[in-house]
């Protein structure tokens, strides 16, 4: 098994993550092996007075014991167990200290708390006992000076046990906890970076959708203004062409109406462009910028809209029912646009047919209906182009406000456009304080 580190790091064999870890572990194992080999040889030759062959075996075993530190990162308990075997010989200090440090640093705490505590306690008890035994054991020659009390030797043995066991264990626990904390922070940073990338992608997607919705809204506004006004202008121009030779006075009236409708169309286009400019300025100014102006087309302007269609020769009946209630500007503008689109469709597809416009204030909101009768077969009006986007835009407008929209053939054979906007869009005149 091998791992590859980023940023140009080289591969390391087996359980090591980096090559320098291999070098460090081999160096420490060599140092511990030399100490254990010399300690084992001294124990066999100087204290036990065994033969040379036994000394060679002890040296080999000591070297192998120190070499167990090579596997300390993969099996951290193995060097500790080996060190516990050699502690009674009063050597293997490097092996004991390094193995205990690795055990505490690499094993997860507190999931393996019992194993760490048990092995550390055994090492401390064994170290304390061996040091105390070495200092209090009788010697061949009697001491020339009186020995200190036994508690002094016990205190020295306890200090050495704490230094050889507790210190590396505490250091290992601290280093392991710090390493896990750093890894956790890195994982959290990677998670936050991924989340920020996702949020940035979502923000870009929202911006794209907002631009698309803004383009759609502008297209609807331009269609509502241009389609209706230009349709009226075309109708008046056709009437002007027919009567210019027969009735000059009526021709002058039609020409005057064409000019008025054209000026109204220009005014509405200027208003739309003005709103767009103010919207851009508001976005650049930030939250404290000026608010966008409210739309001017409202339910109160429906009579004027109907009169314009009547002036174009359309027979329009306008009916208002219910108690008049003001609605939010966007709601009134949407209702106005629905009636405007219905009249435009009547001009395009049912020239000369009677049209009925109904504005009804009902308990659940406000209802607008435009119904045209079927066009007479003998009627030969001017053909007007149609892109089929008007009704789609009206449906989107109404549904966006939570209303309902329907368009289709009427029972009389003509065409019916109907929209209902909810009462929650009404403006309450008296509010509770």
TrEMBL record:
The keyword Coiled coil does not apply. Keywords: ATP-binding, Kinase, Membrane, Nucleotide-binding, Phosphoprotein, Transferase, Transmembrane, Transmembrane helix, Two-component regulatory system. The keyword Glycosyltransferase does not apply. It catalyses: ATP + protein L-histidine = ADP + protein N-phospho-L-histidine. It is an enzyme of class 2 (transferase). GO terms for molecular function: kinase activity. It holds the Pfam family HisKA_3. This is histidine kinase.
């Amino acid at each position: 098994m091998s791992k590859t580190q980023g940023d140009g790091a080289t591969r390391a064999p087996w359980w090591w993550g980096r090559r320098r870890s291999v070098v460090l572990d081999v160096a420490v194992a060599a140092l511990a092996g030399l100490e254990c080999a010399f300690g084992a040889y001294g124990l066999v030759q100087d204290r036990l007075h065994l033969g040379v062959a036994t000394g060679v075996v002890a040296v080999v075993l000591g070297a192998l014991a120190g070499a167990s530190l090579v596997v300390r990162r993969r099996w951290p308990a193995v060097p500790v167990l080996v060190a516990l075997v050699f502690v009674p010989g009063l050597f293997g200090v490097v092996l004991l200290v390094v193995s205990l440090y690795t055990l505490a640093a690499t094993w997860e705490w507190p999931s393996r708390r019992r194993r760490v505590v048990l092995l550390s306690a055994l090492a401390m008890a064994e170290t304390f006992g061996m040091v105390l035994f070495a200092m209090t054991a009788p010697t061949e020659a009697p001491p020339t000076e009186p020995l200190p009390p036994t508690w002094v030797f016990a205190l020295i043995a306890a200090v050495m046990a704490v230094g050889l066991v507790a210190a590396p264990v505490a250091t290992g626990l601290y280093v392991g906890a710090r390493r896990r904390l750093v890894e956790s922070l890195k994982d959290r940073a990677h998670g936050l970076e991924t989340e920020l990338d996702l949020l940035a992608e979502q923000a870009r997607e929202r911006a794209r959708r907002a631009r698309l919705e803004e383009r759609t809204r502008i297209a609807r506004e331009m269609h509502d203004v241009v389609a209706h006004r230009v349709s009226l202008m075309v109708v008046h121009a056709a009437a002007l062409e027919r009567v210019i030779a027969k009735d000059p006075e009526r021709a002058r009236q039609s020409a005057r109406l064409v000019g008025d409708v054209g000026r109204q169309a220009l005014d509405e286009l200027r208003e739309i462009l003005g709103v767009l400019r103010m919207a851009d300025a508001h976005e650049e100014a930030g939250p404290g910028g000026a608010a966008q102006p409210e739309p001017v087309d409202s339910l109160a302007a429906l009579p004027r809209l109907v009169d314009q269609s009547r002036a174009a020769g359309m027979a329009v009946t306008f009916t208002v029912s219910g108690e008049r209630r003001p609605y939010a500007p966007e709601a009134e503008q949407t209702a106005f646009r629905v009636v405007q689109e219905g009249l435009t469709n009547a001009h395009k597809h049912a020239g000369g047919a009677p049209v009925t416009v109904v504005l009804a204030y009902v308990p659940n909101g406000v209802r607008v209906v435009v119904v045209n009768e079927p066009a007479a077969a003998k009627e030969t009006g001017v053909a007007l182009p149609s892109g089929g986007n008007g009704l789609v835009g009206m449906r989107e407008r109404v549904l966006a406000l939570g209303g309902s929209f329907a368009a289709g053939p009427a029972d009389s054979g003509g065409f019916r456009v109907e929209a209902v906007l909810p009462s929650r869009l009404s403006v309450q005149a008296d509010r509770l304080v």
